[in-house]
TrEMBL record:
Belongs to the 2H phosphoesterase superfamily. ThpR family. Pfam families: 2_5_RNA_ligase2 (PF13563). Its EC number is 3.1.4.58. It comes from Alcanivorax profundi. It comes from the Bacteria. The gene is thpR. It catalyses: a 3'-end 2',3'-cyclophospho-ribonucleotide-RNA + H2O = a 3'-end 2'-phospho-ribonucleotide-RNA + H(+). The active site is at residues 34, 120. A motif (HXTX 2) lies at residues 120-123. One of its GO terms (molecular function) is 2',3'-cyclic-nucleotide 3'-phosphodiesterase activity. Keywords: Hydrolase. A motif (HXTX 1) lies at residues 34-37. Gene3D superfamilies: Cyclic phosphodiesterase. This is RNA 2',3'-cyclic phosphodiesterase.
Length: 170
């Protein structure tokens, strides 16, 4: 199974994301909206079982925080192919991401990512670049989810939470 760690998008922000992508090709369904913190790749049930205690302990050390997403723009390049809400990494988000990368380096079967962290919430894959918009979209980061990505039969991927971890540090 292919897995990743992310912060789910819910509440008012999920409604705003759906409105921003309304009518666009390959719009992300509300249930798929998230901010990815780490791609884990192909995982066995055993490797997931080894990872869960570390993620649980990590989440317990981090307090909930908010993320200000300040642009709705083509991603990852100026020409797309995706439309996403983006932001410059904030301290609390960077700290959580760094701790996850350290954990991945320490757990057998996982490796830290080497590419630069570019926080974003994918809204759609419109097929052509759209105009960049600025704004203030607030993501409440109070949970960390371990997701499974299911993209069988040529369908768009669907993301299912395998485990939820409350950010409960203080």
């Amino acid at each position: 199974m292919r897995c990743f760690l992310g912060i789910p998008v819910s509440g008012p922000l999920a409604h705003e994301c759906v409105a921003l992508s309304l009518g666009l090709p390959q719009a992300s369904p509300r249930r798929n909206l998230h901010l990815t913190l780490a791609f884990l790749g192909e995982c066995s049930p055993g490797s997931v079982k080894r990872l869960v205690p570390g993620v649980s302990a990590l989440a317990a050390r981090h307090a909930p925080f908010t993320i200000a997403l300040t642009a709705c723009e083509p991603f990852p390049e100026p020409e797309g192919p995706y439309l996403a809400l983006t932001q410059t990494t904030q301290t609390a988000l960077a700290s959580l991401h760094d701790d996850i990368q350290q954990l991945l380096s320490a757990v057998d079967g996982f490796t830290a990512e080497t590419r630069r962290f570019r926080p974003h919430v994918t809204l759609a894959k419109p097929g052509e670049p759209l105009q960049r918009r600025t704004g203030q979209w607030i993501l409440d980061a109070d949970q960390l989810w371990l997701y499974e990505s299911d993209s069988r039969h040529g369908r768009p991927p669907s993301y299912h939470p395998l485990q939820r971890f409350a950010l409960s540090g203080g």
